[in-house]
Amino acid sequence: MTDIPQRPLRVLAAMSGGVDSAVAAARAAEAGHDVTGVHLALSANPQSFRTGARGCCTIEDSRDARRAADVIGIPFYVWDLADRFREDVVDDFVAEYEAGRTPNPCLRCNEKIKFAALLDKALALGFDAVCTGHYAKVLVHADGTRELHRASDMAKDQSYVLGVLDDRQLAHALFPLGDTLTTKGEIRAEAERRGLAVAKKPDSHDICFIADGDTQGFLANRLGKAEGDIVDESGAVVGSHEGAFGFTIGQRKGLRIGTPAPDGKPRYVLDISPVDNTVTVGPAAALDVSALTAIRPRWCGTAPTGPGTYTAQLRAHGGETEVGAELVDGTLEVTFTEPVRGVAPGQAIVLYDGTRVVGSATIATTTRATAGASA
Question: Which residues bind ATP (predicted)?
Fold first, then answer.
């Protein structure tokens, strides 16, 4: 297998205005591809998506991307996808929290924006591939089939947020940073050697459309405050909140519980009920999950047949855990070899076979390891 395209391609490089996407575009051009840079305008108010090192998509980000394209020597455009981003990512994010689930907007953006809306437009204009600064690898077999693999450097691997890509999307994806066995400092040094002014630009953090990092405030502004009870496992009221949508399973901070636990230990969010606007809290051990079901599976290749043993990743920066998984009537049924903690409906589970990404699905229900409880 190879991860190097065998012929020059017409490549559309998605340039966020950051260092990774700029170096990726530069490497693609250096490899002999015909590269055009594009910055995605994802906000109707482009001043609103960055506060310091948080967020992205401001006018200044588009200018940084343009300056990088000029240095690389490639054409550059700004494409307005703000409406699609609002509908497919931001509105979905709000709706998922309102329903008591915990979404991952980065996966949603890759699935619906970068490798759907952007890719469709690129193909219509005659481009062969979309290039991004993600750290992951696409390996191509001799027969032309493709596999998505973890990056060479596990510390920077971003294959989890690409686990929603299907065969068609992988066939038109290019990740020039995937084979990089270097630190982020060395990527910045490469950017500086290339004369890219973004070499010292801070990385963006957290959710790009919540520039100040205040997810609860963001949701409250859109859904309104709705006072409700915080209860313990017995149903006793131990506190109050201003909207169940502002919590996620496994959360410890910001609970505002006035009554201490009998054992004096911290309490965590165990369950969120949007129907009665109630948040249930309890001990950390009650978060242990032994099994789950997941819906809307997407496969980076052929769908598995029959039960199999894999490793699974449950968060963008989480570790791997061994699981047994089987697709039953379109639903992925997963059993953990050892219980894992703090798994929330709405999150994505991504399955791996070694370094190969098998596919992903959205967690629908979980089975707790204690007393067979489920969420």
Answer: 14-21, 40, 133
In the annotated binding site, the residues are: 14-21, 40, 133
Check residue 3 and give its pLDDT: 59
Q: Which two tokens stand for residue 186?
A: 């060395």
* Helix runs in the chain, H state only: 19-30, 59-72, 82-85, 91-98, 105-109, 118-124, 167-170, 184-193, 215-223
Q: What is the pLDDT of residue 53?
A: 45
The answer to whether residues 269 and 249 touch, using CB atoms and an 8 Å cutoff, is yes
Bridge partners, residue 11, by sequence: 35, 129
- Residues forming the annotated binding site for ATP? 14-21, 40, 133
Told to judge if 57 belongs to the known catalytic residues of this protein, a careful annotator would answer no
- What phi and psi values does residue 19 have, to the nearest 5 degrees? -75, -40
Q: 219: which 2 tokens?
A: 């949701």
Gap between the Cα atoms of 255 and 282, Å rounded: 11
Tell me what percent of the chain is helix, strand and coil, each rounded to the nearest 5: 30, 30, 40
Residues of the chain where predicted confidence (pLDDT) is lower than 70: 1-6, 44-57, 205-206, 371-375
What are 146's strand-pairing partners? Answer: 140
The pLDDT tens digits of the residues spanning 110-134 come to 999 999 999 999 999 999 999 999 9
Q: Which of 57, 109, 131, 300 is catalytic?
A: 109
What's the CA gap between 191 and 133, in Å, rounded? 13
Q: State yes or no: is 56 an active-site residue.
A: no
- Report the DSSP pairing between strands 173-174 and 146-150: unpaired
pLDDT at 134: 94
Q: Are 67 and 21 in contact (CB under 8 A)?
A: no
Burial 322-332 (b: 16+ CB within 10 A, else e): ebebebeeeeb
Residue 210: what pLDDT? 84
Q: b/e string for 9-30 if b means 16 or more Cβ within 10 A?
A: bebbbbbbbbbbbbbbbbbbbe
What pLDDT shows up at residue 265? 87
